[in-house]
Design goal:
19 strands; Alpha-D-Glucose-1,6-Bisphosphate, Chain A, domain 3; alpha/beta; five-stranded antiparallel beta sheet; 450 residues; 21% strand; globular; six-stranded mixed beta sheet; 14 helices
Length: 450
Amino acid sequence: MPSLFGSSGVRGVYGRDITPSLIIKLGYAISAFIGRRKTISIGMDTRASSPLIKGLLASSFMSSGHDVVDYGVLPTPALSFLTGKHTDFGAMITASHNPPEYNGVKVFDHEGKALGPCESANIEKLFDKAPKMVSWNEVGSLHDDRERLEEYLEYVISLASPKLDKLKIVFECFNATACMVVPHLRTSTFKKSILLNSSPSPIFSVDRPEPSPETTELLQKVVKAEKAFAGIAYDGDCDRFSLVDEKGRFIELDKLLAFYARHLVENHDVKVIVTNISASMVIDELVESAGGKVVRVPVGDVYVADEMKKQGTTFGGEPCGAWIHFEHNKSPDGIISSILMLNILSEEGKPSKLFDEIPSYHIIRYNLECPPKLKVKVVENFKENIERILGEPIELLEVDGVFAKYNDYWCLVRSSGTEDVVRVTVEARERAMGENVAKKIVSHLRGIIR
């Protein structure tokens, strides 16, 4: 059987990869991994298939003797936050930033931290084992606790600076789980805010509810037209966020992370910042200039969280807008990240001036569709032919895919853990050079995929 878990749990297209029978077996495998009777929190995003998957998963848990607490529709970080406070494990039904036909399951431990590769592998080993169902008088209970989301909301609000009340912020919710949180923030904190696509729906306002320059075009226009201080966009399950400055410009996510990381090193005595192998070199430059250190790991928030724990640090983030603040939540939290970022901006001035001072390097990214069985082969082929394609690198790493560093650029070719694509990333000091390198790599890879 192909690997069930990717870098963000189990995920795929409903009806093709994610089927009722798979969810039932997954529920029994998770139950067996957990062991004797525990309490499992469960939540879901707004996708059409989420209620069905939630019901099947809860049934598997309960028939295995576990008690289930249903938190209803809520952001993934809210589920991880509440799991860390109240239950032994958590299961979130979501496909995050993927299109609406996708769905999946992400599992959290008692701290609210997503299960790592070793734990996920142990669950996979139990996937085809016969389920251990309990007798009628040992079936687990089901408790509806949807009002518990208020606890998360109160905590988020407590982090907001009083100055935020005076700022006009535009929020893009994409008709996804942000709709369960942002309207409450408007009432309590952002009283001058403007909300876009703020009614939950199984059909998002964009095909991919991902905070990118393309999906936030409406947000950029509204921020500029309304003369707002800034704009914030969240992805489908709110574990990511992005920022638009007062001029209506999308701030590069690497630059956003570099700015925040430097602030922590300079003002909060954070010595180590954890990020992934695909992050921009501007992060290293800003963090090191402030006296900090950057540690890189494979792509995926579970790797970031594991390394944060190992390094004894409190912050780590990926250049997709997924940031982890251990003192607040053990998993990526776009809602809390956006509040903390806006707190800083409210003290330091207009976003455009602050981010224009940070150097921009040129990052070119390609996602090449690739059959699951070919993904590993394609990456291996690139490694074998890299010198013929690009010349001999200064440094070659296999932390996550193939990372090669040259004098004026670096490149990374890796297999996605969440989609049937091979990802190509190139960063260069000059755009023309980066585009040329990316084209050489993509041309070679497409020849293999075909």
